[in-house]
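Whether sequence alone determines local backbone shape is best considered at the level of individual chains. In the encoding step, the backbone of a single protein was reduced to a row of integers, each denoting a local shape. For completeness, the protein is quoted in full, as a sequence line and a line of structure tokens.
***
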Amino acid sequence: MRMKKLFLLSLLLLVGVMIAACASEPEESSATGGDSEEEGLGSGGDLVIANLSDAVSLDPAGVNDVPSYDVQTNIFERLVRQDEDMELQPLLAERWEAIDDVTWEFKLQEGVTFHDGSEFNADVVKTNVERVLDPDVAAPAASYLAMIDEIEVVDDYTIRFITEFPFSALPSHFAHNVGGMISKEQIEDDYAAMEEGNEPGTVINENPTGTGYFKFESWTPGDSIKLVKNEEYWDGEAKLDSVTFKVVSEDLTRIAEIETGDSHITNPLSPSDIEQVSGADGVHVTEQDSVALDYIGFNVTQEPFDEEKVRQAVTMAIDKEQIVDGIYNGVGELAIGPLAPAVPGYDDSISGLEYNVDKAKELLAEAGYEDGFSTTIWTNDSRERIDVATNVQAQLKEIGIDLEVEILEWGAYLDKVDNGEQEMYILGWSNSTATADTGIYPLFHSENLGNAGNMSFLEDDDIDALIEEARKEMDEEKRNDIYSEIQEDLVDIAPMIYVLHQKYSLGVRDEVKDLIQLPTKVLYLKDTYLEE
């Protein structure tokens, strides 16, 4: 009993430190402007962002991709949010604490209303979390909250979550977009539509209704999404009048748009275009370090990638430095395993599978493929990813592998990869909570096959057991030891080639001020404005 009390005291002290961190000052590294309020600037403006890809869904429970989250995060709010340092800050919850080793209590903001005028309260939070966990809704990112066993509404503005096991990262998981709070009335309408045979999220996609500083105005799929200022926002209005997320799939067209002023931001900016944009009049480049991973995945259920030696051989046949330096122009850090160096639990002692063409040929021969084989690699229509695919195509010829490159539109690409139709594929993972759990559990645990994150379709009992052990371990040092073992095993098993942890680059017109891009790649636009 005494040990349990000591454990609880330690945990509560840790939580106190987390909450105290909410007073930290914002960094300047990802902002493009200065102290607008002090200078008397920063009101109005219609911001246009030229995006590579359209959103897939505007329902927080409907998708698990950054282009969708970029829009959603400015409509919907979560209980907590992350700042530029990935520190947790209050949002719809004003504070939180651990009551015991499996119970978290959140005190909610009072006086908050949704865009439809309905009230935000604990019952609304319960309804939202239950929807995320509803198998009929089948939220791709439900795993972030799947450890919640019970939800208790204490009073109108107090809610408790009881988890199946001790889980210290639960507040961080509520910062993920899947925790975006939707109007209860709209959830009820969406369920009614489901009973009539519609897909989950049908009603929400028509007019997404959150508590955020922007409100939804229109969506023309494949063309643009427009948001307008919420003039009744509970925590101070946004400075912009509107934001338009405009789909411009061609890199050079996006650059031309910001140079002419037709758009204000090109998202993303290819590393190979940084020099051009940096030298242009009236525009500049921003860079943001990330906690993300860019990778080349194998579908381990497809021959010949069901053979570990084949995956190791392909990994060792690819010189990743060619990709990082030649395609990404060194804008990023070479990856060894799945976690970025800034993520707690990262182990810098892991060496990875080194580039060695001769060893790769030996492994192929041992696996019965001494003459090589033919296969296909899929990518979406990102220029870097297309360049990576063609680079890998050339490199694998050296070990007798004939690689065909297939390019798909973003939405169709995700659908096919989610269904496991791929052999090899190129994707990224943003690690939206900057934790080892988010960098590993969705990508590699067998409960998350397909659109939940595990698109390599890895099912490994030993990896599963270690991941589950790490999730339940409350001692940080012991937990990090387990994550070290997991990282070593994932390098050896090689369900993917860990390529790089890139920096995110944007091309931005000079009149755009106070733009923030988080290390998760998501744009935070509340304080952004256009200087006249």
User: Anything to note?
Assistant: The CA atoms of residues 221 and 402 lie 36 Å apart. The longest strand covers residues 93-100.
